[in-house]
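the four lines:
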Amino acid sequence: MTEVDYNAMPDEEFRDMLRNFIEKECPASLRYQGRRVRWKEIKPWTLKLSKKGWLAPAWPVEHGGMGLDIEKMVAYHDIFDSAGVSRAPDMGIVMIGMLLIRFGSDAQKKYYLPRILACEDIWCQGYSEPGSGSDLASLRTKAILDGDHWVVNGQKIWTTVAQDATDIFMLVRTDPTAKKQEGISFLLARMDTPGITVRPIRTLGGEEEFCEVFFDDVRIPKENIVGNINEGWTMAKTLLGFERLTIGSPKFAMIAFGSLKELAREKGLFDDPVFVNDFIKLKMDIDDHVGTYRRYADALKHGGSLGPEMSILKIVSSELYQRVTELMLEVAGEQGPHLGPSNFGNASIDPLGYYFFSRPGTIYAGSNEIQRNILAKAVLEMPSQ
Amino acid sequence: MTEVDYNAMPDEEFRDMLRNFIEKECPASLRYQGRRVRWKEIKPWTLKLSKKGWLAPAWPVEHGGMGLDIEKMVAYHDIFDSAGVSRAPDMGIVMIGMLLIRFGSDAQKKYYLPRILACEDIWCQGYSEPGSGSDLASLRTKAILDGDHWVVNGQKIWTTVAQDATDIFMLVRTDPTAKKQEGISFLLARMDTPGITVRPIRTLGGEEEFCEVFFDDVRIPKENIVGNINEGWTMAKTLLGFERLTIGSPKFAMIAFGSLKELAREKGLFDDPVFVNDFIKLKMDIDDHVGTYRRYADALKHGGSLGPEMSILKIVSSELYQRVTELMLEVAGEQGPHLGPSNFGNASIDPLGYYFFSRPGTIYAGSNEIQRNILAKAVLEMPSQ
Amino acid sequence: MAELGWTGLLIPEEAAGLGLCLGEVAALHEEIGRASIREPLVVTALLAARAVALGHNDRLRTEKLPGIISGNLTATLAWLGESTGLDTTNVGPVAVRSDSGWQISGTARYVPLANSVDAYIVAARSSDGILLFFLDDLTHVSIDSAALSDGTSQGNLTFDGLTVPPESVIADPEHGSSLLDDLLDIARVAVSAELLGNMQQVLDMSLTYLRQREQFGRSIGSFQVLQHKAVDLYIQIELARTALWRAVETIEAGADPNARAMTVSAAKWRCSEAGLSVVQQGIQFHGAIGYTDEYDLSLYVHRTIVLATFLGNARAHRARYAKLFISSEGKS
Amino acid sequence: MAELGWTGLLIPEEAAGLGLCLGEVAALHEEIGRASIREPLVVTALLAARAVALGHNDRLRTEKLPGIISGNLTATLAWLGESTGLDTTNVGPVAVRSDSGWQISGTARYVPLANSVDAYIVAARSSDGILLFFLDDLTHVSIDSAALSDGTSQGNLTFDGLTVPPESVIADPEHGSSLLDDLLDIARVAVSAELLGNMQQVLDMSLTYLRQREQFGRSIGSFQVLQHKAVDLYIQIELARTALWRAVETIEAGADPNARAMTVSAAKWRCSEAGLSVVQQGIQFHGAIGYTDEYDLSLYVHRTIVLATFLGNARAHRARYAKLFISSEGKS
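prediction for all of em together
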């Protein structure tokens, strides 16, 4: 790996570099997919990125990242999104790695970061619990210190592809007497620790996208905590900040829209004025969402911060994604309800897969109802009841 | 006036009778109007109806009404609505007359009912007050008994065409110590009583559709109360019941839709597939609303009662009406913002008038937000907070 | 279902059917939708059995109808060609007169239950018009089947010059087109009714969930935004019920094919659209659990998606409605 | 406005203009919209003054432009014919070469300020292409004027074989079409910006009202449904801002007329649509008082209705966008 200062590179050169690499190395099966790909499918491509040193755009160079500034970060995401590249299970890179770089102990950094970069460890996130839903702080999985170990009991749910993961970072209640947010700590565990059981949950689309993770007297080394005891909520909020450029990204809507366009061409739908009218409405919404996303990212470049704007992007991107897939399902006609990809002229497209995969976007990462509550209070200064 | 048993008439004959009369007698200037017509414009036609004995379809025959059963009532409204006949200031007929027939003293009936039928008295409704809005029971206009008179002080607002009225029925607070709904009485007053001042309010459409009515030590005869003292809220609720077939009627949306169709024909818009698509969406919504209205009216015929279904009709009709006028304003193109009617081919249509006149429908008679609250609680049994 | 005699829904009693009226059929399908019963009653009873019952072939009616009604002989309807659409101009297979009867070629697409029935009613275009055939020798038919969201399947049948004797004709070129349109429109009413049952059940399940589920220390059904969304679904369902019953009443009053087509398309359009709105919002009400296949809601989600598409989705029916509207009154 | 020199917005400083860039013009119009200033700056500055400034007639530029910029000479643009549309194919008046110059006949419709200006820039079709004329002798022009919602007016000008000397030509048939398109599109950007200012102000007024107004013993802004509706308007406004600024940046980056047309139509479409949504919901937020002409909100309601229509409403711009989209990439 040669040390390149990507930030000094002209923007177009940087984009071309990534674009060319994707065109050359990223297989078609990982592009424009209306579903979450599993680790074994995407691993070879991820290793290629790792080898190039392009796996961790936001990590500092000294930890093996690309050390991109915000401008280049936007370009990086832009290129990968426009090219419709599927996302690997990247929680190690975008979440826990980032958190450890900021709050991890030296030992944690030294142990975990290289393993993440080398794709040896695949991380999953243990946040939600049955019954907690959007009210995350009501979680009940508890960890009690017993000598050199935390003993964890409880259950997590909606853990994305936990069956592929080697490690989990999670929120656990370490002080049952404290108020909601205050008794929570941030814990790391190997998935093969005795007492951890994973049960995949089948989604509407027939994928095993989420899991339940059960903890039954699981003993976790005392030092596997990030930050201080009972300060897990701060860690969680910091993590949320790392998502600021991804959570409301136009990526999914753009990928689906690309497939919709292909389908429309194959079916000759651009000769139908009613379809064109529906189509360009979506196109304008996507263009304006992309423009808004860039406008907010620009503000970041110039030292601004993204607060509630994130909520806007999250709302628009997830609802737009759904509208695109709803139109795709409809214009697919009799082939709409087909399970798996089917042929439209020369194209193989999976409208039903897209339709299902777009459903949870308005639910997870703070439902859109919650996001609107946040905006009403924080931006529009609407009174509480 | 010959005594005819309209309820015994075959439905089609009854409808033809009304249809023919309207075609012959009702001037074009009173049909398909996107605004509220004033009393002086509509008086001649109203007198014709009065002469025929067809002014009060719901009143019992012994009081000079048509005594229609529910089936014939539906037909009556159907014919008048489909023909786009403007509504006279008819609060005497549909509201206070009905209430007096049920709760009025003999003296009140004998004095008021013939005057209403002869179009000598025109009534307006004094309910809303500044600040009370959807929360009607918070009204503050008060009446204090002083000898043989109630002395009224306060202010009403949003009183429809009060400047044309000879009489007002209103809700006043007669017991300031009682809880919200309990200290309210139902009072009648001549508009020329000293101390009553009327100030018309100009609407967006430039019409003087509403008024403020001020009461300044207005002395009203003690006997001008309907029902018992402090039972005004019951009267108001009863009155609401009389509106059950009109409040959610498809009338306004149908009239506007008729003009939209005319405009579309004149502009050749039926050759534009995108317009046709928008148009038939509205058409289907109107058809289904009309069908739903009839279905509910049928339930009344068979002895059912209309409760929260009224809220559904009110929501759908008012929002549909607005959507029709929004499309009309848009396809009127450069003529959309014209004040007053303008020419489209051979037709003279006032899209802006329609647009404005459709606005308050979602606000008055219990805003649509209130209607949805009612449905959520009463029909869907959603919990209170 | 067949055991209950329901496959003979609209077949007169003298022909061993149930002799129900369309209103009763709609009511039954609403219940089927509510319970999410995955029986292919529309296909077997309203497409196949009705075709044989209303066709002009006495022999087939005598020999085959009782079997179809009793469930011993399962059958489906194959008609749609490459260019999908809702009326008989879109019939795919082609029939050419031959010495020994008719020769059928071409493809019928999206045939329900294509690979799991004993017999087909096949509609084919000929130079004289559309014919309907009864076909229970499937040896020369190739089937390409696809699984659907709800676990059922549909397939494309390809006929490669298959010869069919005159005795297999159910409807001759003079009657084929009107019979086919009739079969399809009546079936669409039943599908609309099933969608209506589906959406009612999804709303009921959602309301129950909203009442029970707690977040932030209160029942989520107490949030005004969710209440109003539920109300809007309820209104959609009321409008869909109206549209369905208008179609039923119009047909029962003896409407001509054009009026029937318009009212049926309005109903199928409304019910398909409302059905999808209701399941989409139903998923949102349920949150993550609504996105899983493990919860009962998923049955209705999958079924609604299939029914909303079957015999023409909202978009297709809106287009048909537009065409009929323009030709009937748009220009008048 | 003229006193401040603003009529010379986009006119280079050497021609006595302000020499602002389009971004500055947009920002100014956003403020004009916010304050609901009823000055016809778009008409005088961006249609009339720019026409003279960019036209090829040095004499008129020298003699007339300073007057227009100073406000001593008011002028407007007349171009649209019977068949309304957004581009130069819809020019109404017709010009025929004559001995003494050109003869103009036909009608220009929906001309802003038709009956209250000193001069017209008239676009007319000829067999060679579109020309632009400067006209300040109005004796042979008949004007039919109509009042608009916001108190302004527009009118139809009818030319009955009016003779115009060659010295009055601002743009010859080779340049007329592209100049006219340029004038219109730039003006549309400013109108979009004014709409954006309008909608922001309406949202702000609504938010203030929602915070202050009490019903059922609580501030109505505490009702979740109203909160979410306000959020949705806020989002619409954010998207409109993006659309507007994309148009500004695209034009400033030197886009070709097609790219300019597409981005301008997207902006005008979005801003017109969002503008109307915001005023409609703004009225609803305010309840009955929002329906009166006595409250400040009404200024913005009327103005938005006029601006949403001026130079093409959402529907017209969506249609233009569709056409451009199909020809540029829909089929590729």
